[in-house]
Amino acid sequence: MLTLLTYPRHGDVFSFSPFCVKAALLLTYSGQDWQREDLKDPRRMPHRKLPVLRTPSGLVPDSSEIRRPVTHSIRRSVCTGLAFQGIGRFQESDRKARLEQDLQAVTTLLKDSPFLMGGQITSVDFSVAAMLQAMRSTMVETSLVRRISDDPVLSGYVDRVFHEAVPLS
Ligand SMILES: N[C@@H](CCC(=O)N[C@@H](CS)C(=O)NCC(=O)O)C(=O)O
């Protein structure tokens, strides 16, 4: 099991070090099994600071380094989720080809009209624009983010729905 070497609790607060709190949040959010081990003296730690994560392959000092294995674990759980849901069972190239087909279909519908069903916005636009907006705005700039944001038709459509037709506060 992973062990977070951390400064002790401070009342209700997980640790008086915000870096230790950050590491604890990362670990908890990732859903991994982990435990805490309180230290008061960090002098034997690699950077003589805490937090440090003890893993089966060694000590990981610094909360930003701790983020890496945690992010990796979150990514793995997302991939498992995608496999369960079905999308993840396709090869990446097949997934992209299927998506591209859908994007082309949307682009064709928008060729001569501002919304998918014509000049009037409908609930179809609410579904599709919401999906496209999510694809365009993930935290990490993926090829999908660029695919949507660099496309004037798709990106213009998202802006039209959210900025002009139905602005959300
Ligand atoms: N960049 C480090 C900073 C960690 C840090 O500064 N820890 C402080 C406590 S908040 C510490 O252990 N200081 C001990 C020392 O400098 O002797 C991280 O993100 O983990």
Task: Write structural notes for this entry.
By secondary structure, this protein is an alpha+beta fold. The chain folds into two domains: 75 residues, 3-Layer(aba) Sandwich (Glutaredoxin); 76 residues, no CATH class. It is built from six helices and four strands; from the N terminus they run E-H-E-E-E-H-H-H-H-H. It has a four-stranded mixed β-sheet with strand order 2-1-3-4, with helices on one face. Strand 3 and strand 4 form a beta hairpin. The longest helix has 23 residues. The protein is elongated, with a radius of gyration of 23 Å. The mean pLDDT is 91. The site of glutathione has 10 residues, from helix 2.
Topology:
Blueprint: E1 2-6, H1 18-30, E2 34-38, E3 52-55, E4 58-61, H2 63-85, H3 92-109, H4 123-136, H5 143-149, H6 152-165
Parallel strand pairs: 1-2
Antiparallel strand pairs: 1-3, 3-4
Bound molecules: glutathione.
Glutathione is lined by residues 17, 19, 42, 48-51, 62-64.
SS content category: alpha+beta
Number of helices: 6
Topology pattern, helix = H, strand = E: EHEEEHHHHH
Associated small molecules: glutathione
Please, how many domains?
Answer: 2
Cα shape:
elongated
Q: What order do the strands of the largest sheet run in, or round the barrel if closed?
A: 2-1-3-4
Strand elements, count: 4
